[in-house]
Design goal:
The structure holds two protein chains of two kinds. Among the domains of chain A are: about 40 residues, no CATH class; about 160 residues, MetI-like fold (Orthogonal Bundle), CATH 1.10.3720.10. Helices cover about 65% and strands about 5% of the residues of chain A. Chain A contains 15 helices and four strands. In chain A, strands 1-2 form a two-stranded antiparallel ribbon. A two-stranded antiparallel ribbon of chain A has the order 3-4. The chains are: A mainly alpha, B alpha+beta.
Chain lengths: ~325, ~375
């Protein structure tokens, strides 16, 4: 490469930067729309043209977490004055918060959100854990029919999940796994495992086997060598695999919609169901979606260093 | 303290036999070098001793006890790998301490042992660094430290300095020698570099295609190569090999190579020593320093033409056309001025080796 950049190279560079900026804006637009709608007053949510400048409020989040009903007549001013700030916001909208005695009744959203967390976290841990062990086995030992087995594992991903959804549903109902956390976890683990095995095998293959051999000679068992040497070395791969598995499980919609309805329903099928009857409350839906985005964003952010590959590699001479 | 004995070792990879009936006894404190080209079975042998590779037949004895069924961890042997195998996620201290962490040693003792080894290897100021921050030589010092810290029964080294550049390799070679002299432990060292082997070994084991070709001190394998393979593998520049015919001349023997019109003059007793091997199936081996070159004619010298000259600094290698074959001679730098120059050549009978062409075996004839 020339040390001095020519004017055409500079122009190309600028064009590339501009293209990346435009692409980024396009990709960020829906997220901006969701985030801004989540803080908008109800009446601005569907205004045309869209309102850009407004006074943000958290009322959509209050509505998201509470059970409410329309009020037939205006609220008693004394009751209004005695209410906490968030309840006033509900009264302002012509609704009241449902209560049993003094306790505010929560909406189903926290439950569904918790379900999503339980199912996604447990299925990710299982899929990555099992995938790591399996990949290690495939990477380090001579296994009869290794290529066929690996292909078989991959082949579970070749059917679109929707194709097997109905038979799976019937089977699940027969054994009583429908609408249960375990049922959904099993499905997501089965779905993510092939991906996890293949991805982890790539990472395992990159860890020189001399690392474990050195540990074996130094007085460790293979199991100890695996936990002390291989796992720390594979951290990057495990993090990357975990992020992908978590995102897949977290976002999964089709199976969750078919397999669950009440107890174990996760957030993705729940949020659109709230569009429901009458005029959709876009701000509340946006608030639900916005909160739903956060765990994945936080998880990915926390693991960002591990996602930059090659940080730990390079201390071995090849 | 530690003797290692290999008895009748055989090893197959699938249908391919990589080690053939290997027998070797290694004495306490001995520095043994397994020397050979890649694929000769030297590394497999080493890994079998370490317990990283199973064997199909034979016994591996450490201090008289068979260990071939023991796991690597239970053999009390340390190994240094060509790739160093330092754990990137640990500091140098933790890397060196790693073998001790597998024992019940208290952390105070671990600390003491690590610092002692670090002092010997001069890596004390590196203890807090990560392996990725080290130079190649320091990485290898740390790897050796990790092997030494446990005071193992034996040290195994698999091309430990093969990945370093030439200058560093020389430095580390001297360092390994110094360490061995100082610490003294039974060592098996694998390399394909004959200079390393010559300079480090008490005894060299030369392997080829899964067979031991010769076991001997560096001087023995250099001066008395057991066969053509060893003769050409050990020594640089490589020994000249040529089909030879020996004829009886009055008062002398005449050795002809490459169908040259005249032969080189040898003492007459060569004939009786060769004892019938004189015609057909005889190969002469002569190292370039045994090919003597001079400008002017003298008795016993044959006029030849210089072909290629390789200047190597302190000396030159000159290719001389003798009949249809080339003999490489080692001369003083600049002694032969250029290709085409006419010089006179003689073979020093005392440096000549004779081999049976068919079997490649040395006839053991030295004058």
């Amino acid at each position: 490469m020339a040390a001095v950049r020519t004017s055409s190279e500079v122009a190309f560079n600028r064009a590339a930067i501009a293209a990346v900026l435009v692409a980024t804006l396009i990709f960020l637009a829906p997220i901006y729309w969701i985030a801004s709608t989540a803080f908008k007053p109800k009446e601005l949510a569907v205004s045309v043209p869209p309102t850009v400048l407004f006074e943000p409020e958290v009322t959509p989040f209050v509505r998201l977490f509470t059970k409410r009903v329309q009020m037939q007549k205006p609220v008693d001013p004394q009751v209004y004055e005695a209410a906490p700030w968030w309840e006033k916001r509900i009264y302002d909208g012509g609704e009241r918060v449902l209560k049993v005695g003094k306790d505010v009744q929560l909406s189903q959203y926290p439950d569904r959100f918790t379900n999503s967390l339980i199912v996604a976290v447990i299925s990710t841990v299982l899929a990555v854990g099992m995938g790591t062990f399996t990949a290690y086995g495939f990477s380090r030992f001579k296994i009869a029919g290794e290529a066929d087995l690996l292909f078989f594992i991959l082949s579970t991903r070749m059917l679109p999940p929707v194709v097997v959804a109905i038979p799976m549903f019937l089977m699940y109902r027969m054994v009583g796994l429908n609408d249960s956390h375990i049922g959904l976890i099993i499905l997501y683990v089965a779905f993510n495992l092939s991906f996890s095995v293949w991805l982890m095998k790539g990472f395992m293959d990159e860890i020189p086997k001399e690392y474990e051999e050195a540990a074996l000679v130094d007085g460790y068992t293979r199991m100890q060598a695996f936990f002390k040497i291989v796992l720390p070395e594979a951290a990057t791969g495990i993090a990357a695999t975990a992020v992908f598995c978590f995102i897949t499980a977290w976002n999964e919609y089709a199976f969750a919609l078919i397999m669950t309805n009440r107890r174990a329903q996760t957030a993705p099928p729940f949020i659109p169901s709230q569009i429901g009857s009458g005029l959709p409350d876009w701000t509340t839906i946006a608030a639900g979606t916005f909160l739903f985005l956060l765990p994945v964003a936080i998880f990915t952010f926390l693991l960002r260093n591990h996602l930059l590959r090659g940080v730990t590699f390079g201390a071995i001479r090849k | 303290m530690t003797q290692i004995e290999l008895r009748g070792i055989e090893k197959f990879f699938g249908a391919v036999q990589v080690i053939h009936n290997l027998n070797l006894a290694i004495a306490d404190n001995e520095f043994i070098v397994l020397l050979g080209q890649s694929g000769c079975g030297k590394t497999t042998t080493l890994r079998a001793v370490a317990g990283l590779e199973t064997i199909d037949k034979g016994d591996i004895l450490i201090d008289g006890k068979p260990v071939q069924h023991l796991k690597a961890a239970d053999r009390d042997i340390a190994m240094v790998f060509q790739s160093f195998s330092l754990y990137p996620h640990m500091t140098v201290f933790e890397n060196v301490a790693f073998p001790l962490r597998a024992t019940r040693m208290s952390s105070g003792e671990v600390d003491k042992s690590v610092r002692e080894v670090a002092r010997v290897l001069r890596i004390t100021d590196l203890l807090d660094k990560r392996p990725s921050a080290l130079s190649g030589g320091d990485m290898q010092r740390v790897a050796i430290g990790r092997a030494l810290v446990r005071r193992p029964k034996a040290m195994l080294m698999d091309e430990p300095i093969g990945a370093l550049d030439a200058k560093l390799r020389e430095e580390m070679r001297a360092e390994i020698k110094r360490l061995h002299v100082k610490q003294g432990s039974t060592t098996i060292y694998v390399t394909h570099d004959q200079i390393e082997a010559m300079s480090l070994a008490d005894r060299i084991v030369i392997m080829h295609e899964g067979f031991i070709q010769q076991v001997g001190t560096p001087d023995e394998v250099y001066s008395h190569p057991a066969n053509l393979f060893v003769a050409q593998f050990v020594g640089s520049p490589v020994m000249n090999i040529a089909e030879a015919r020996v004829a009886d001349r009055p008062g002398a023997a005449s050795v002809t190579v490459g169908g040259a019109p005249a032969g080189f003059e040898f003492p007459h007793r060569l004939l009786s020593k060769l004892n019938g091997h004189s015609n057909g199936g005889l190969t002469l081996g002569i190292r370039p320093e045994g090919v003597l070159v001079r400008h002017d004619a003298a008795s016993g010298y044959m006029p030849v033409e210089a072909s290629i000259i390789e200047p190597l600094g302190s000396f030159d290698i000159v290719d001389l056309k003798v009949g249809s074959t080339m003999l490489r001679a080692r001369t003083k730098a600049g002694y032969v001025s250029g290709p085409g120059e006419k010089v006179h050549v003689r073979i020093d009978p005392e440096q000549a080796h004779f081999f049976d062409t068919a079997s490649g075996k040395s006839l053991g004839v030295r004058l």
